[in-house]
Amino acid sequence: MTTAQEPVRESLPAQRHSKAELRRLALEAGRALEDADALDVMRWAADTFGHRFCVTSSMEDAVVAHLASRALPGVHVVFLDTGYHFPETIGTRDAVAAVMDVEVITVTPRQSVAEQDARQGARLHDRDPDLCCALRKVLPLEESLRGYDAWATGLRREESPLRSLTPVVGWDDRRKKVKISPIARWSQQDVDRYVAEHGVLTNPLLSDGYASIGCAPCTRRVQDGEDARAGRWSGFDKTECGLHV
Ligand code: SF4
Prior knowledge:
Structural class: alpha/beta
Largest sheet: 6 strands, mixed
CATH topology: Rossmann fold
Oligomer: single chain
Active site: 241 (nucleophile)
Pathway: Sulfur metabolism; hydrogen sulfide biosynthesis; sulfite from sulfate
Protein name: Adenosine 5'-phosphosulfate reductase
GO molecular function: phosphoadenylyl-sulfate reductase (thioredoxin) activity
Keywords: Cytoplasm, Iron, Iron-sulfur, Metal-binding, Oxidoreductase
Bound molecules: iron/sulfur cluster
Number of domains: 1
């Protein structure tokens, strides 16, 4: 497992594609791979980008990391450690790093929680969660993706109305990278089936009433019948952290 970003970035292979070529690749693959098997999507990413391709994971489960490692052993798995995660999430990260053929890269914000508290006041997440997410998730992700041409996420269309149009392969115009969501078309049953078939690691909180797992102060258990993401930022008119908009 790696925590320092610069040594990893320095070891990345040279860029193969210009930004214009990346955009063209994204649009072409978006059409060609829309109905493709998730593993085939990952194989395309591995063949096209090599180790300039990474996976981001919240450590809710390791499904996408597992798919990616089958296509690209040693694939980089970027984990944003906000300083507010549940111990179970950190434990899942450590288990993934220990047993899977991946390189987990833990990315931390520029400021520790204590430094942020000193500058912004305590419990920023209770007062301005958009700013807290910007400082502790969005900015660190921007910085960590700098050396890559393509990144994969575990977004699924059924998770929320905002995610319902997620392309399997699309163009991340904000970051000028190819964005891959290989399980965009999967249902929760598909995820559960893959986990069972391959013995994939999952966060133990999923068996404790949590349906979507983020930072501890902003995540609660969901009730029967609630949307999977209803437990995120409960009480706020906020459903996304800003990584995917
Ligand atoms: S999820 Fe909550 S604690 Fe985590 S970065 Fe966003 S606002 Fe801050």
